[in-house]
Amino acid sequence: MAEVLIDIDSIASKLAQKLGPEIVSEISKRQKGAGGGSGSGNGKTGGSSGGGEKPKKKELTENQKRTQSLGEGYQAGADASPLDQDSSELRSGRFSGIINRKIQSARKFKDTTKKEWDKYKIKTGKSENDGGNSEDSGHGLGGGAPSPNAKSKYNILEVKEARIMNLYLKGGLGGSGAFGGGVGIPGRGGSDGSTPIGGTPPAGGEDKKSGALGRMSAAIGPLAMGLGAVVGAGIGIISSMAGMHQQAMQSQEGTLGAFGGYASGGGGIVRNAEVGQIGISRARVLGGSAAGQDFDTEGSKLGAQFGVTQGIGGTAGAELFAKLNKFGGFQENESALKKIMTDGIRSGFGGLRQAEFIQQVSGISENAYNSGMGIQSAGQVSGTLSNLRDAGIRDNRLSSVYSAMNDNMTKDGGQMNSMLVAHHMQQNGGDYLAAMAAAEEGMGSQANTAAINQMTQGMDPKTKAIWLKKQGIITATEGQNSVRLGKDVMDISRQTSTNDQAADYGREAAQAVSNYGGQRHIEHANALDQEAALGDAFKTANDLQDKIFKMMIDRIKDLNGIVTDLKALF
């Protein structure tokens, strides 16, 4: 759901500021009535009447200045706490802008406050040493209430700002909790401590403080500036933190339900959002819950590390390892990875082609599993592929030759299947069903490949190559290559050598995957997102934002009446 924020106070303030003195004067006249005074008929031309209008216009100008001062203060306070901008800059790896924004905001706040206070001192004759104890000074929020002379009559402009002026802060920004216990706006419901219009403000003198803030802000420009800054800073921080919390949760909105909450722990390897995707993808293969596929376990993490270092992505790598585990008995540890990566290098799949090789191994094991026949382990499949490569089969043909040979062994009608069934019946005392089941293990059984090799041992290499060509297993070119190399394509039951150079390369490749720690910028982004999603302060800010959102939705119908009233003014 998209975030919707409506700042009614700001809208009302801006509309009020745009009303010219002539419109306000006309409104005042209508409020007094059509026949309000003997001078009404010549108010535009009479000197006395004209003189009577000027004080009103001057008073409105001062009110507008105070309203502008409050708005400037609010903006200064909001600019002083751009938490969302700071977070974005931290993600990018920079921080100079954060410091610069703090300096500029503090300077603007100081300059604006000093300007307003200097104006006030010139107007009232107050000095720097004024202790603020006089009735009408209002210097300091803890001073007494302004004198009656300092109170301005609320006109239409000031009434529109009354809601902001009466805002009180429970505990202050430096109190207990993240923001001193929360922010309440009288007359609007909301967090604890807020009170409807006409109700009783919180106990402990806070009602007096909020009332004093309203009266002083209406009478003194600098205090309006200060109040606006406090409100702007507090609401700016809360809004930014709530937005960061929602963004962190929205980044995983596609996995929150299936994973069971916010997923974390990606470190520098993958983003936290991908941790949830990894858990879901592995759970779909291995079963169980997505959260149960703990990223800290060797299988999930090693698969993600492999996927990232191969450029296929952490999720694809972790899911690939899960399939190797289920269909091919892959142990998902560094030792097993070393074996299969060594076979890949010997098969011509080095570097970034390792992912392609392991995908082929996984596909062969999965096909065997899904066919209902025997299990073909990932380690044995990879070793057989490397031996076929050693016999002169090209790298991109290894999987096809393996599959053709396996089909000939497992399916009825193949010459190799008939040979294997006869062989196993001799071994088991004539049990035909058991013999067929043994033959269906195909290339996954060393006993099958050894039996075929033994039964064709009497053929010379060229005759065997021709026979395999007639079976549709290899091409004539591949048969000729094997003869030239002095290799037997059917001699695939031999163990892969562990003493060649490929074994060293395989060990180094497996260690590089296992030791991959990721990227620092990903780690920093994950730390920020995790705190924003799970931190208590961010959750509290989001709860407050939810209340404000609900409050605005509940009152959205009132906007129709407001718009109608405003239309009548123009």
UniProtKB/TrEMBL annotation:
Residues 53-65, 120-129 have a biased composition (Basic and acidic residues). Residues 33-52 have a biased composition (Gly residues). It comes from Leptospira ellinghausenii. It comes from the Bacteria. Residues 26-97, 120-150, 185-210 are annotated as: Disordered. This is Glycine-rich protein.
